[in-house]
Amino acid sequence: MAGPAVQSLAEVANRQPGTRLRNVMLLAPDIGIFERILPRIRHVAQSMTLYVMSGDRPLALSAQLHGYPRLGEARSDVSTFEGVEVIDLSDFLARA
What we know:
Shape: globular
Distance between the termini: 23 Å
Mean pLDDT: 76
Helix content: 40-55%
Strand content: 15-25%
Strand order of the largest sheet: 1-2-3
Structural class: alpha/beta
Largest sheet: 3 strands, parallel
Number of helices: 4
Low-confidence stretches: none
């Protein structure tokens, strides 16, 4: 689950502000948590990559349970997250 991973990055940013990671990769993080914490964790990672895909059943179930979409859903608006590379795996996984 990416929620705890994003929260852990925030803890690192708070407790050890000099820490720098080369690349952080997130798979379907919680959109609410990610939006709220991104400004605090952006400086921790040299680059941040978000993997998204549409038609993912666990993501759809999570959205139902939490009441808002998961960031990893390809149809979520991820264009507002400046400095975050987005890779859409929908086509790749559909062929697998």
